[in-house]
Write a structure and sequence with these properties.
- With about 375 residues, the protein is α/β, with parallel strands linked by helices.
- The chain has a 7-stranded mixed beta sheet with strand order 2-8-7-6-5-3-4, with helices on both faces. A 4-stranded antiparallel beta sheet has the order 9-10-13-12. A two-stranded parallel ribbon has the order 1-11.
- Strand 5, helix 7 and strand 6 form a beta-alpha-beta unit.
Length: about 375
């Protein structure tokens, strides 16, 4: 006979954890999925078969071993690792962010980042008990440089995160502004983490400057992921920094943190990088087409992007508030089988904004058609 379960006593859970909300993933079964900045293309059938054969031959009864080192060697060649630097793997960028926070965790330690930005910067700091300082962007989504410098001077954060390009605004910061921030943080021994998650679609990489001027960038850690490359399901991130940084960070990295399955998928993708690079080229072409198409619709303002996503501000003439209008369009798209991200309440500068992933030509056509219909209904 089943007894009624008791009420658990959760006093051992930290109050700040209870105050947080778990990361929510939108249900997407049967939807055109344009909400999570994924590469919309699958592997060609022939490569699927080759990858399946390789994965089937793995020794899953053994802990990860030489395959991990082989992948690191491949990645070092892929990025043309600068002299004096090393590379560390993570189970996605999320784990790397957590490990960085753990390594820098100390009484009074602080983390700083522009807002809006990637939610895991703040969440990881809060989970580890570090103070988090968010510095609002300007209304045009650019860094508020004087405000950033004042905040850094006041708080002297151990870690400053700068996504390059930023999520969800999809823009690149001014290189001069980044150089000044790096110099300021370096002066007191902090670290600047340049998050290049969207590097396959961006027109710039900070790795070039790390290679050309290692002294000025000694306090820079560059972080990337293969998620946007086309392996979101494989969970593989990596960071690049001068060797002493990686030596210290490896001390907090769990052993066997990257599975043999993840590593084999990543290694396979790098062997066939031309396929993924061709996909990125098509995504960038579709990004421009999508931008031009949405720009032509009344009541919509798409913003230029250096990533595989873009912000679209809703400005239909209506009695609804701007955020309520964005929610209405979000729900309308959802009813039409298209899932995007409603970011209108994430931060004041994102008021009335939706974030859309650049999909396949067919998916983008469906989005353009749906938004055109919605715009006409509000004309």
């Amino acid at each position: 006979m089943n007894s009624k379960p008791g009420t658990p006593d959760l006093r051992c859970i930290r109050p700040e954890i209870k105050a947080l909300s778990a990361y929510h993933v939108q249900p997407s079964l049967g939807m055109i999925k344009l909400d999570a900045m994924e590469n919309p293309f699958t592997l060609p059938l022939e490569l699927q078969q080759q990858l399946g054969k390789r994965l089937g031959a793995l020794e899953l009864n053994r802990y990860p071993g030489q395959g991990i080192e082989d992948l690191k060697t491949q990645l070092c060649a892929y990025v043309d690792l600068p002299q004096g630097h090393d590379l560390m793997l993570g189970n996605g960028s999320d784990e790397l962010i957590a490990l960085l926070t753990l390594a820098c965790m100390a009484p009074g330690a602080k983390v700083l980042a522009p807002e809006p930005g990637f939610v895991m910067y703040a969440m990881s700091a809060q989970l580890m008990g570090l103070d988090y300082i968010g510095v609002p962007l300007r209304d045009d989504f650019e860094l508020d440089e004087p405000r950033m410098r004042r905040a850094i001077d006041e708080h002297q954060p151990q870690i400053v995160y700068l996504a390059y390009p930023n999520n969800p605004t999809a823009n690149l910061w001014s290189p001069l502004a980044l150089e000044q921030i790096i110099a300021q943080v370096s002066s007191y021994g902090g670290v600047v983490v340049l998050d290049e998650a969207y590097s396959p679609f961006s027109g710039d990489t900070w790795l070039t400057r790390m290679r050309e001027d290692p002294q000025a960038n000694a306090q820079v850690i560059l972080m990337r992921t293969l998620s946007k490359f086309g392996l979101a399901g494989a969970r593989l991130g990596y960071l690049i920094a001068q060797t002493p940084w990686v030596q210290e960070l490896n001390k907090v990295r769990p052993p066997y943190n990257v599975s043999v399955l993840n590593a084999a998928c990543a290694s396979f993708a790098l062997e066939h990088r031309a396929v993924f690079e061709a996909q990125a080229t098509e995504i960038m072409a579709e990004r421009e087409r999508l931008f031009q198409s949405l720009q032509a619709l009344p009541g919509l303002t798409p913003y230029p992007s250096q990533a595989n996503m873009m912000l679209v501000r809703i400005a239909f003439e209506t009695s609804l508030s701007p955020d309520a209008m964005a929610l209405s369009v979000f729900e309308d798209l959802k009813d039409r089988g298209i899932l995007v991200k409603n970011v209108s309440k994430m931060h004041p500068v994102l008021s009335a904004c939706l974030r859309v992933t650049v999909g396949t030509p067919r998916e983008n056509d469906a989005l353009i058609k749906a938004l055109s219909s919605i715009a006409q209904a509000h004309a």
